[in-house]
Amino acid sequence: MNVINIAHGAFIMLGAYLTYWLFVGPMHLDPFLSIPLAMLAMFVLAYLLQRVLVNQVIRAPMLATFLLTFGISIMIANLAQIFWSSDIREITTAYSGTSLSFGGLTVPWVRLWTLLIAIVLTIALQAFMTRSKIGRAIRATSMDVDAARLSGVGVANIYALTFGIGGALAAAAGSLVSVSYAITPSMGDSFLVRAFVVSVLGGLGNVTGALVGGLVYGVIESFGALWFGEGFKDVVAMVALLLVLLFRPYGLIGRATA
Amino acid sequence: MQRGPAVTYIILGLLALSALLPPHLNGNWVHVLTLFFMMSCLAQAWNLIGGYAGYASFGNVTFFGTGAYTCAYVMNELHWPFFAATACAVVVGAALAALLGWPILRLRGHYFAIATLGIAIGMQALVAELPPLGKGSGMTLPINSNFHFFYWVMLGILIVSIVLTAFISRSRFGYALVAIRENEEAAAALGINAARMKVAAWAVSAAITAAAGATYAYWTSFIDPPTVFDLNFNVLMIIMVLLGGAGSVVGPTIGSFILSSIGEYLGAQSVSPWHTVVLGAIIILVVIVLPRGLMPYLTGGLRAWNLNALRAQLRASRI
Amino acid sequence: MGFANDRHHRLFAFLTGIAAAALLAVTGAAGTPQPAAADDVITFGAALSATGRDAREGALTKEGYDFWADYVNAQGGIKVAGKMYKVAIKYYDDASDSATSAKLVERLITQDNIKFILAPYGSSATFAASAITEKYQVPMVDPNGAAEAIFNRGFHYTFAILSPAKKYLQGILELAQTMHPRPTTVAVLAANDQFSIEVAAGVRDYAKQNGFTEVFYSEYPPDTKDVATLLTQVKAKNPDIILGSGHLQDSLLIMRAAKDQGVQSKIIGFSVGPSTPDFITSLGPDANGVMGGAQWTTALTYTDPVFGSAQRYTRLFQAKYNHLPDYHNAESSAACETFQYAMAKAGSLDPDKVRDALASLDIDTFYGKIKFDSRGVNIYKPMAVEQIQKGVHETVWPEDAANAKPIYPLPPWGKR
User: Most exposed of B1, B93, C96, C152 (fewest Cβ within 10 Å)?
Assistant: First the structure.
């Protein structure tokens, strides 16, 4: 939809904090079980933000959405800092640190579940985009806004829904990472950068592209660390990204959009 | 050659006058203004590739860091004086942009943006691993506590970059860049060598950025990878260009002035993060009301300041 | 939202303008009021990280500064040349960016006319700020920038009260030498930044000279999000001792990854992290047994006339802030105390006289001995080692300050 959402990192952070508060609150909700709640909450927030704010600048020239979402993201991150302080929060469940061992490999259960849930969400999103009426409306709007409008699509609503779905997925990501990483107000930044890189690596406008990009990136980063040393892993990953784009300018499985 | 809008001359005049300021200012204001000049340079440079050519680079900070490290290395290891070191930085920056530009500028839109982001990240990681460059500990430079010197150098680079942008905007090169931005296929069909033009634009952009980086290194006398390859610089330079007006001669400087003033005012008020929250709110409000930045209002004369024009623009921007 | 008609549009634009103006006005009005520039107030300046990567450590530092200021003010102030002065501290937020630290320190000196600077958090920021204080000849006391590189530039106005970086992890190896059976193999992980590399270099040298074998050494990017690959390699080498040189978030990351991979060593220790309250609250029982190099612990037996003893400081601090002070808190308070002594010794508030007094200071405080070598480094204060036992910090080294026996070797994960 051509909206560069800088606030994506902030949404991830909010999802993580929401999961944290549900975990330490009276309900003691397991982080994985709180994913649907976090997704719902962020969907609503993201929908509202798009409807009220971002929709004002969709047709504005280049990168206005970039600027707007940047403003949103620094507001959210700093409000989080004010209300929740910079204390580092961590979620440690009974099963954190347990792992599956086979054939000399040790795979932490938490990571495995994270991967499975990511795959499930990707499949669900893909199905939604291709099979459902709203999904088709989204794809139509992304191709040609005016044609979609003429066909009866409420485009303002569609933009907001799309942003809402993005926010919901960010919240899910936040919930998933909250079990493995420290939760701080500024945690979103590095995830944001990786998210951009990964989605471009896989190919934009393509749901499975993100999953493929993520897996490929993770593998390259880890093997890069192993073969070239921990310090070079980012260099290796970025060189790989550039090489991929050189030979496949629209990402691994992306296509040039019309 | 046509004359530019009045605002360009006004800005240049103000900048020239500000060369006289340092003896009358305390250290804090000299520092603040030097920083403002530097950010304006970065924004002006970004404007060439992002505003005129339409290729939004998320990795221009790479050249800032490269310029800083080149200057540091040359001054420390080769013991050359500052201006020679800056010249080296400019050459290295432009060469790097030319080298990377050939393959990378073939990418479009978001792909180009993220590829440049990748370059910035990769360069920071690479520099942090090189022992001659101090690895993660960074490098120190000879101390020069004549802060007025750096004020004038940054101001000089800024004025040069504005004049350069003005000349480019009225040259065939500039028109070619705009043509590329509006419709690259059509431009190529008209005989414009898009590849060469884009690379040239990025090289000039990189040269200015590297010069600013070199000056920054000598000014602060200490650099390390996270500071000079900080992606925040890149975000800020883009925001400044957008606030002021992309694709205009002095828009970036105006945008830089707006952001720096507000940031400085708010930052001085309190320590709490509230000041950044307010900054975010202001950015949001400004971009909704002025999605093209301030320039169209400054060049359109007073006619543009009526509510009808504003309303029409708001209507055109939203969905 | 689609505006139904132009009147709504006008209203929106009008409200936008009002909102922007109001926001600016409110923040202006809510700004920190300047302390009375009265004759009897000494104002110190501090650019600290209230936001950003070092926000937590910056917050701990501020607690330390504020605790001292409130404490001495409650006593009537500090005495210089027979006159009592209240103290105040002017803060700015450097957002964990060292270039901003330098800018804000310059602002404190040239705009706010402050003559005494308390250093920002961290070696990087202190490094940047030291050039500024040197130029304006304003003394700066540094409580938490331990990289010696700061002091190799020939500056005269910066004084670090903490033990230098290279000593951070040595204590753990000193302790290890007294254990039976004596551990011999060491793995070192270091973040790729100035401070952490100095710490690692120091402990690696010590290891080499004292009969330890280094089986693994790797640096990692300071903002890394994933250390799984590192820990896999560490596990393969099966070291007796694992030492991590980095910052708080790194130590948490490494602990988690170590547990995930089931990495079991006899000793595990970090330069920064275990001493903070967050380490224990974040890791729960897994934190038990972890050692940390400590600039100061609550069990030390130093005394001084201002706070009495380390224990009294602890009691009063905990009463005020609801958590036990860690060394970040203590050294920050000690930095202010150092200024206090220097001013009293100089008998003047002239920055150069205070600087000279600092250079020749030789005092014992609740934090330890404070005395500087010719570069401004406090090489006279030893470091201690803490170990977390049953969710509480215990001092296990040096022997004369230890208040608990070290747990050795580490029990398996899940049994801590």
Answer: B1
> Is A64 in contact with B287 (Cβ distance < 8 A)?
yes
State pLDDT tens for residues A110-160. 888 899 999 999 999 999 988 888 888 888 888 888 888 888 888 888 889
| CA distance to partner chain B, nearest, from residue C12 (Å) | 10
Q: What is the pLDDT of residues A38-86, one digit of tens each?
A: 999 999 999 999 988 888 888 776 688 888 898 999 999 989 988 988 7
From C271, C288, C319, give the residue that closes a domain: C271
Can you give the pLDDT at residue A149? Answer: 84
**Chain B contact for A196, CB < 8 A?**
yes
**Whole domain around residue C203: which residue ranges?**
169-271
Q: Does the CB of A95 have a partner CB in chain B at under 8 Å?
A: no
**In chain C, which residue's Cα lies nearest the Cα of A99?**
C260
Ordered domains of chain B (ranges, CATH): 6-317 (1.10.3470)
Provide the 8-state DSSP code for C30.
T
* pLDDT value for C3: 42
Averaged pLDDT, C263-285: 91
Position C87 pLDDT exceeds 80: yes
> What's phi and psi for C368, nearest 5 deg?
135, -175
| A94 and A80 Cβ atoms separated by less than 8 Å | no
Same domain as C253, residue C310: no
Name residues whose C-beta falls within 8 Å of residue B85's C-beta, 6 or more positions apart in sequence: B70, B71, B74, B75, B214, B218
Rounded to whole angstroms, the Cα distance separating B57 from B59 reads 5
CA pair distance C107, C255, nearest whole angstrom: 40
Average pLDDT over residues C96-105: 89
Q: Long-range pairs for B192-199 at CB < 8 Å and ≥24 separation?
A: B195/B102, B195/B105, B195/B106, B197/B53, B197/B173, B198/B49, B198/B53, B198/B55, B198/B101, B198/B105, B199/B97, B199/B98, B199/B101, B199/B102, B199/B105
Average pLDDT, stretch B129-135? 92
| For residues C369-374, average pLDDT | 93
- Structure confidence at residue C34 (pLDDT): 47
Name the residue among A42, A32, A46, A40 with its Cα closest to residue A175: A32
Query: Inter-chain contact A232–B125, Cβ cutoff 8 Å?
Result: yes
- Residue C132 inside a domain? The answer is yes
What percentage of chain C has pLDDT greater than the value 90? 67
Spatial separation of the C-alpha atoms in residues C219 and C201, rounded to whole Å: 11
Q: C16 lies in a domain?
A: no
Total structural domains within chain C: 2
Mark C33-65 as b/e (b = at least 16 C-beta within 10 Å).
eeeeeeeeebbbbbbbbbbbbbbbbbbbbbbbb
Is A256 exposed, middle or buried (CB count within 10 Å of its CB: 0-12, 13-18, 19+)? Answer: exposed
Question: Does residue C283 lie within any of the structural domains?
Answer: no
Decide which of B70 and A107 is more confident.
B70
Q: Is the bond preceding C398 in cis, omega lying within 30 degrees of 0?
A: yes
Q: Please, which residues bridge with residue C189 across strands?
A: C218, C244
CB-CB neighbors (< 8 A) of B230 in chain C: 97
According to DSSP, the residues that pair with A167 across neighbouring strands are none
What predicted TM-score, i.e. pTM, was given to this entire model?
0.89
B146 in reach of chain C (CB within 8 A): no
Same domain, C97 and C142: yes
C248 lies in the same domain as C356: no
Report which of C109, C113, C161 is spatially closest to residue C132, judged by C-alpha positions. C109
Partners of residue C187 on adjacent β-strands: C216, C242
Is C12 inside a domain boundary?
no
Q: Given a cut of 80, is residue C19 above it in pLDDT? A: no
**Do C228 and C307 fall within a single domain?**
no
- ipTM of predicted assembly, 2 dp: 0.87
**Which CATH number do you get for residue C252?**
3.40.50.2300
User: How many Cβ contacts (< 8 angstroms) between chains A and B?
Assistant: 151
* CA gap B281, C346 in Å, rounded: 49
